[in-house]
Design goal:
Elements lengths: L4 H5 L2 H6 L36 H16 L10 H7 L7 E5 L7 H4 L7 E5 L7 H13 L4 E7 L3 H8 L11 H10 L4 H18 L2 H8 L4 E7 L6 E4 L7
Parallel strand pairs: 1-2, 1-3, 3-4
Antiparallel strand pairs: 4-5
Bound molecules: zinc ion.
Zinc ion (ZN) binds next to α7.
């Protein structure tokens, strides 16, 4: 099922305008990677700068997705040398809550590699307790600067929660987390994907004093997006809990 309605929520142009969450443009960020075609695959644009601010880190992720969607993937940090470099110690610059869907591999979607992203994936990208615990570790202990909730079009978990039909085993355990989004979207699955990103992000912040204090102190930015399985682009989602 394709959720074209999501595209009406935020256009591609708006993505560029709000790339860093909060109205700061990617091009206006010192050291940030502007998502122009000529810069997509330049060598200097693909290694994560160590001194990135949280908002610059969001723009850096955006640039990686731009490369992927444009067919100009650089696939940085994916060789054995990089693995050995980060083997003693990891310092991922972003942490993710994404869906377990086989079509949404986070490192590929954002054109990153070993040691760059701390990724938790669970069907429906729901903020279950153990996921919150993992993301607290990623942000508080490892120092990730971005906490990113990534939903996607054609999400089977959201669709199943919206239908509410009987499902085998423990699958329905996921639904309790997704139903608030389905209700907010009044059953529209595409809209529910969007609302689910917002609600899970809100749960992460409001359900964790560790995460909320990092956000309020400006050390962490919360971002959200929806990965479009057709275009390969991540469309940003405005979040009330993004941070200052
Ligand atoms: Zn999904």
């Amino acid at each position: 099922m394709c959720v074209h309605g999501v595209k009406t929520v935020q256009t591609r142009r708006r993505w560029l305008a709000t790339a860093a969450i909060g109205g700061v443009t990617a091009a206006g960020l010192p050291g940030a990677v502007a998502a122009t075609p000529s810069s997509l695959a330049s060598p200097s644009s693909v290694a994560p700068p160590k001194d990135m601010s949280p908002r610059e880190a969001v723009a850096f992720l955006q640039a990686g997705n731009e490369r992927f969607a444009a067919g100009k993937t650089a696939a940085p940090n994916r060789d054995i040398d990089r693995l050995r470099e980060v083997a003693p110690r990891q310092t991922p610059f972003a942490a993710f809550l994404g869906c377990a869907d086989s079509r949404v591999p986070i490192e590929i979607v954002f054109d990153q590699g070993f040691g760059d992203l701390f990724v938790t994936r669970i069907a429906g990208n729901v903020a279950a307790t153990e996921n919150i615990a993992s993301l607290e570790f990623a942000t508080e202990v490892l120092g990730a600067k971005v906490l990113y909730v990534l939903g996607h079009t054609s999400c089977g978990a959201v669709s199943a929660a919206a239908k509410g039909d009987p499902v085998p085993g423990q699958i329905s355990a996921l639904f309790q987390h997704i139903r608030p989004a389905v209700r907010a979207a009044r059953g529209d699955v595409a809209r529910a994907v969007l609302e689910n990103v917002r609600i899970q992000a809100q749960t992460l912040v409001e359900g964790s004093t560790v995460i909320s204090s990092l956000v309020s102190s400006g050390k962490l930015v919360v971002a959200g997006g929806i990965f479009d399985l057709q275009s390969g682009r991540v469309e940003p989602v405005d979040l009330a809990v993004a941070g200052p």
